Amino acid sequence: MAKDSGIEWTHHTFNPWWGCVKVSPACAHCYAESWARRVGMNLWGGDARRRFFSEKHWREPVKWNEEAEKRATRARVSCASMADVFEPRMDLDPWRKQLWTLIEQTPWLDWLLLTKRPGNIKHVYPWAKMPRENVWLGTTAETQKSADIRIERLLSVEARVRFLSCEPLLSNIDLSRWLAKRQLGWVIAGGESGGQARPTHPNWIRSLRDQCHKTQVPFHLKQWGHWSPLREIVEKPRRIELQDESGVKELLTWRSKTLSGRLLDGRTWDGYPQTQ
Question: Which of 21, 28, 133, 191 is the most exposed place for a label (fewest CB within 10 A)?
Fold first, then answer.
């Protein structure tokens, strides 16, 4: 949990629990699993336990809500960066119920629920047909195949905002058929970070940006990660040449996440859906 989160597209992060199961190529180098292991916890896998938290932990979003109300400015909360709210485990049901109650108690917070399991939302989510004003539902799409499957499942659930996180972006993705119908209200893109990070071709990100611009859907570039376009000569850099689907080659260099930054074509892209 973090007040004033370092995640670029949210204000706060809240984890109702820690732990998950890897279900897609995007999960291969899961930073959350690495972080949990770093602090001595084995929480990943179907048979692994989950880490739960005290009432003090659960009261923090209530404080954030009070602060937002005093400022008369809504705040976004990324929920479950160390887990998946919609993981199909019955032992999580009591904690999900507590989360739904917390969401109702915090109307000044916009809760961003991002999942790789959109098909399970309707089975455990109480507002699948009656969307709450302060809940945004999103799914991850790292490739065209994952986009084709998960977006359609996400569309089966009602939401004030449906959004897509294309991070780590591992191929070009065509979202035009959903964006043209305004079925997605926000697109986030980003490369992968970590010691085993896979590269993202800049044209894949440009394509998402241009698709969003054409349909007036907000676009947000979160990060390049550890592989970024080579903008200047670096002494003895670690380099890689990546080719997109059209044969365009791009030279990328390995840098720290901070040095890689989040500029695309000379600027940041900080689109957000409109709030109340």
Answer: 133
Per-residue pLDDT reduced to its tens digit, 8-52: 778 999 999 999 999 999 999 999 999 999 999 999 999 999 999
Helix axes 93-105, 55-71, angle to 10 degrees: 20
pLDDT of residue 6: 61
Classify 32 in phi/psi space as left (phi over 0), alpha (psi -120 to 50) or beta. alpha
pTM greater than 0.90 (yes/no):
yes
Structural domains in the chain plus CATH codes: 12-226 (3.20.20.70)
Tokens of 196: 């085993």
Residue 212 pLDDT exceeds 80 = yes
Compute how many other C-beta atoms are within 10 angstroms of the C-beta atom of residue 69.
15
Burial 27-42 (b: 16+ CB within 10 A, else e): bebeebbeebeeeebe
